[in-house]
Specification:
Blueprint (H helix, E strand, L loop, with lengths): L1 H23 L1 E2 L2 E2 L2 H17 L4 H29 L11
Antiparallel strand pairs: 1-2
Helix pairs in contact: 2-3
């Protein structure tokens, strides 16, 4: 029961975070997309190669690294979730 309560709390937190995250992804009329991520990662490469002191390049490098790390963590968590026994319940993620 304690585990079920913990899962419910995590689910509620993720649900409540979804709306602000979606709103943060919109910059005026511009929706953040893969091209923006590519530019941020290019700035990260430039920062690593040249050692530039530009605040924009430093921010974009951190944004890119954080985004990629988050995707890796999500992939690992999903893999761990799929390995859990279902105990006779129907799995939604097959």
């Amino acid at each position: 029961m304690k585990t079920l309560c913990g899962i419910a709390v995590v689910g509620l937190v993720l649900l409540l975070m979804a709306v602000p995250c979606a709103a943060a992804a919109v910059d005026g009329n511009h929706l953040v997309d893969g091209n923006d991520l590519l530019e941020a990662c290019r700035d990260g490469v430039r920062l690593k190669e040249r050692g530039s002191k530009s605040a924009r390049e430093a921010f974009n490098a951190g944004y890119c690294a954080g985004f990629v790390k988050g995707m890796i963590d999500m992939h690992e968590a999903l893999g761990d979730f799929r390995k859990r026994p279902s105990y006779g319940r129907v799995s939604m993620l097959r």
